[in-house]
Design the sequence.
């Protein structure tokens, strides 16, 4: 069966520090991969999606970037975190036009 | 882009009560999903329902694609049903899943 791993679960980082969040999927190949951010009390905002290795589509101009170095690995990065980058980051996968499944999320606090 | 509106934004129920949550979308969609976000933030898949009706225990969902809305029914609510319910849609030909703002449900014992 397919599973999605996302880490770390929580992270506290100072302003100006770099960020790297990793998401990996098991049990499937060539998934579509997604990064979402959820601000406190709000809905989910799509940040990036990828339909294949090295293919990244950005939805919102921001301080973040994404990379897909392997088929089932999706990384969210920042060179210098801002206070406004705080939030709950969720990775998701799906194959083709089917339902999406989410990881457990990373709660990022920038201080 | 496509707009996804959920109503009501907040809902308080007494345990055992029934409720209906609504999701309206502004354009034709390929896919529609309902999720429950638990207090720990995890998104749990409830239904994948681009059209028609599905039932799973006390929950059921109906999507009328031609009229651009979906309904989630919760019967005999329990305190564990508390959380945020999200509707998410994908437009034809695209890969993006877009979420509504959610309905925050609190079930009182």
Sequence:
């Amino acid at each position: 069966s397919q599973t999605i791993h996302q880490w770390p679960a929580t992270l506290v980082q100072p302003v100006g520090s770099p960020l790297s969040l990793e998401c990996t999927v098991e049990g499937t190949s060539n998934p579509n991969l997604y990064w979402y951010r959820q601000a406190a009390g709000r809905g989910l905002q799509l940040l990036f999606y990828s339909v294949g290795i090295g293919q990244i589509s950005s939805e919102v101009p921001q301080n973040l970037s994404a990379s897909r170095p392997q088929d089932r690995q999706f990384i969210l990065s920042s060179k210098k975190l801002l206070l406004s980058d705080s939030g709950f980051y969720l990775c998701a996968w799906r194959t083709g036009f089917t339902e999406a499944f989410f990881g457990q999320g990373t709660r990022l606090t920038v201080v | 882009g496509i707009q996804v509106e959920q109503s009501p934004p907040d809902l308080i129920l007494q345990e055992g009560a029934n409720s209906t949550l609504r999701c309206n979308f502004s354009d034709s969609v390929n896919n529609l999903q309902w999720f429950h976000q638990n207090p720990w933030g995890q998104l749990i898949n409830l239904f994948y329902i681009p059209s028609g009706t599905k039932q799973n225990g006390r929950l059921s969902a109906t999507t009328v694609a031609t009229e651009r809305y979906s309904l989630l029914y919760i019967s005999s609510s329990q305190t564990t049903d508390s959380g945020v319910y999200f509707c998410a849609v994908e437009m034809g030909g695209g890969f993006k899943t877009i979420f509504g703002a959610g309905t925050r449900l609190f079930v009182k014992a």
Chain A has a mean pLDDT of 92. Residues 37 and 45 of chain A are 5 Å apart (CA to CA).
